Amino acid sequence: MNILTCGCFDLIHSGHIDFLNKIKGKDNKLFVLVHSDRFISTYKREPIINENDRLKMILNIKCVDDAFIDDNDYLSDETIKQYNINSVFQAVIGVSNWNYYYNNAEKQEIMNYIEYDTNKVSTTEIINKINTCNDIDYDNRYTKENILKSEKLYGMGFQSPGLEMILNTLLPNKELKNILEIGSGLGGNCLNLYNKYKCDILGLDICKSMIEICKERKYNNKITYLLENYNDFETEKKFDLILSRDVFMYINTEQLYQNLQKIKSQLTEDGTFILIDYCFGEISNKDFTDYCMNRNWNIINVSFYKKLINDAGLTVVDDNSLSQEYISYFENKELDIEMDVKENLNKKIGFLKEKSFDWHYFIVK
């Protein structure tokens, strides 16, 4: 019988060894799928030990018969077939939050979840003890000072290029009653949407400073700004239009899948979801992958984005690249901005030009 388990295995400890021995049992072969550095950084943090060294350590554990690195955001049918897997095991604490990752194994009825013994050591505890966790300094990046620096770059009310021009080409030409923006930022999109549709608009954002700026500016009493993470947002209201612009790249694949399912439930029958996000481009580039991990971005490619949308029960009716619009917005433009902002902008434009990543839109029903 061939057994498979998947995981990070960063800072291997006795809890890992006990788990691996337990699931192998007698007369079975144990295969270990080691998550790539990129994938781990999307759901946990940038790993302390790189993927090749983690693989080497796993291969040298006595009970492991074979191990390999995998960069997919889910356990694929191809992997299950390639290793002729009969049973898949995952350690969990309480309810599993790996529903999408193990979707194929669930369908084949070979998935097993084992409760992790919380009395045993964990990698997180080890990292907390030595205080070397490489978390992003969110509070520093999103101070009012730094937010207003970005606004100076992108234009009044915006934290990404194109002002309202790009969005206006994607908006439906019909009457709308209720609109939700996930990640409303400094309110530029909400104000533009109100000017077009003259309807009730709700903007959600997790950044306290941005919400405060929006409320201070008092754009319009038909626009409501709420300090809340969409992950936790619940409402009975249905929306004719839901917009998310450069937001979902900050969440892991499991949460993205859950959010897409929630969006489906919150759209009216003929509602539209407009999604604009960063995606991996045609050219693989380690510098860009490292850049993403450093900024805590979960970038996926366009085809996988479409698969997630479809798996969530939604349909992509139109999509295309906006990368050239991003580049053109800044070309031959005199920018009166701070040096650190300019350096980061030039780095992103460089990645866009070499097609390491793609600024992409999806029109979804």
Structure, described:
- Helices cover 39% and strands 22% of the residues.
- It is of the alpha/beta class and 365 residues long.
- It has 2 domains: 2-130, Rossmann fold, CATH 3.40.50.620; 138-364, Rossmann fold (3-Layer(aba) Sandwich), CATH 3.40.50.150.
- Strands 6, 7, 8, 9, 10, 11, 12 and 13 form an 8-stranded mixed sheet that branches. The protein has a 5-stranded parallel sheet with strand order 3-2-1-4-5.
- It is globular.
- The model is unreliable at 132-138 (pLDDT under 50).
Could you give me the name of the CATH homologous superfamily of the largest domain? Vaccinia Virus protein VP39
Query: What is the SS-derived class?
Result: alpha/beta
The percent of residues in helical segments reads: 25-40%
End-to-end Cα distance, whole Å, is 43 Å
Mean pLDDT across all residues, rounded? 88
How large, in whole angstroms, is the Cα Rg? Answer: 22 Å
CATH topology of the largest domain: Rossmann fold
> How many domains would you count in the coordinates?
2
Q: List low-confidence stretches.
A: 132-138
CATH architecture of the largest domain: 3-Layer(aba) Sandwich
Mass-distribution shape: globular
The total of beta strands comes to 13
- The CATH C-level class name of the largest domain: Alpha Beta
The number of helical segments is 16
Largest sheet: 8 strands, mixed
Query: Into which percentage range does the β-strand content fall?
Result: 15-25%
Order of helices and strands, N to C? EHEHHEHEHEHHHHEHEHEEHEHEHEHHE
